[in-house]
Request: fold
Amino acid sequence: MGRTTGLVIDLQKEAPNVVTEPKFRELLAQGYQAEVLCRSDAYYKSAVWYGAWVLRVVDREGTFERLLVNIPRRVTGEPEVAIKVFKTINGLTTFMARMGFTHIHVPLLEGGRSSLALPTEVMERIRKEITQAGAASDNDG
Reply:
């Protein structure tokens, strides 16, 4: 399976412009799009495509964009946030399938980008799951 690595970013500068997986999925369910950005040319080796891809969630107007990051962790005093970088198409495809995508388009050249939207029925299912999870947590308190 594909691995992900992280590019460490300055939390003070970038925190408002990033999302973790749960928020990424929630925004996709609200109709935002996922944008796949190719950070380095892809190459094929031993039946696997390698490269560097990052994801961001964007609105249709292009006024809202947030990079997907790994869950913040504390190494020293400050939380360390790292952009989630997918190193193989297999890893990217697996993640996108978990988010609910039924097909993906992956740019292979550095600088390439592709926008993807969840199918309507998947958005509705995720919204329902989020609502049910929220109701369950309200009942726990």
